[in-house]
């Protein structure tokens, strides 16, 4: 796995971890043991939290190309000023009805 992206196979693993935790919580609750299993749940939550953090960091990572593209677009947008009085000679043919 690249350090910059989150591996698709790892996404499935993370989803499984989250679903497994949800199932475990429901089972413990149904058995009336939810609070008795606090230490185990905290360990499991810690592992899932670390993995969720890795997912968040990797899934929001901008590659250098994407960051450069975003910078160019932002710069163009910030510096763009609409022309309130376009010169008729420079107007596009579709605006003149040609």
Structure description:
By secondary structure, this protein is mainly alpha-helical. It has one domain (8-80). Helices cover 66% and strands 0% of the residues. The chain has helices spanning 8-30, 38-59, 64-79, 93-96. α1 (8-30) packs antiparallel against α2 (38-59). The radius of gyration is 26 Å and the shape is elongated. The model has no long low-confidence stretch (mean pLDDT 83).
Short note summarizing the structure:
The chain has about 100 residues and is an all-alpha fold. It has 4 helices and no strands.
Estimate the mean pLDDT confidence.
Answer: 83
Q: Quick one: biggest sheet?
A: none
Molecular shape: elongated
Provide the helix percentage: 55-70%
DSSP strand (E) fraction?
under 5%
What radius of gyration results from the CA coordinates?
26 Å
Class by SSE composition: mainly alpha
Give me the count of strands: 0
> What is the number of helices?
4
Quaternary organisation? single chain
Distance between the termini: 56 Å
The tally of structural domains comes to 1
- The low-pLDDT segments are none
The helix/strand order is HHHH
Topology readout:
Blueprint: H1 8-30, H2 38-59, H3 64-79, H4 93-96
Give me some keywords for this one.
98 residues; mainly alpha; single chain
């Amino acid at each position: 796995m690249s350090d910059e992206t989150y591996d698709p196979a790892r996404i499935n693993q993370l989803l499984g971890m989250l679903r497994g935790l949800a199932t475990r919580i429901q089972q413990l609750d149904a058995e009336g043991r939810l609070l008795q299993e606090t230490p185990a749940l905290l360990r499991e939550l810690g592992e899932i939290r670390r993995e969720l953090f890795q997912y968040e960091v990797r899934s929001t990572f901008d590659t250098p190309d994407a960051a450069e593209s975003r910078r160019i677009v932002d710069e163009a947008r910030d510096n763009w000023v609409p022309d309130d009085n376009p010169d008729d000679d420079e107007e596009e043919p579709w605006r003149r009805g040609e």
